[in-house]
Design a protein that fits this description.
3 helices; plasmid; Phasin family protein
Length: 130
């Protein structure tokens, strides 16, 4: 007696999901977005560490300048300059972070656009070919 395999509600014909019909294409598709995300995260880390290194060097210079200041007015000028430079540096860093965000969004949109195009081409090809 032959047993018939039970069908679940999740069995879909491969023609509805062309990306699943070719496992190499599916694997390639599945890796594009996480790879793009990892690349953006690494860019954030590189930029953040570079920024921190620069700010720590400026902090050390502030301490040296305060020690070298001879008068109270000189100390006030040193601290004022430091605060002004820090505000500028932070604003510049926000700009760099927004640039990374824009690059990531552009890359993600390109990946999605390419996947949709490939999916539509595969669907069209599967409907034409017997």
């Amino acid at each position: 007696m032959q047993k018939q395999a039970s069908k679940s509600g999740f069995d879909f014909p491969p023609a509805l999901f062309p990306a699943l019909s070719d496992s190499n294409k599916f694997a390639e598709s599945a890796l594009k977005m996480p790879t793009s995300i990892a690349k953006a995260m690494l860019r954030y880390q590189v930029e953040g560490l570079s920024f921190l290194q620069h700010r720590f060097q400026r902090d050390i210079k502030l301490m040296d300048d305060i020690l070298a200041a001879e008068k109270t007015n000189d100390t006030f000028d040193v601290i004022s300059d430091y605060c002004r430079d820090a505000a500028f540096d932070y604003a510049k860093e926000v700009g760099k972070t927004l640039t990374i965000n824009a690059k990531f969004a552009t890359d993600a949109a390109g990946i999605v656009r390419e996947e949709v195009k490939n999916s539509l081409n595969d669907t069209a090809a599967s409907t034409i070919a017997p």
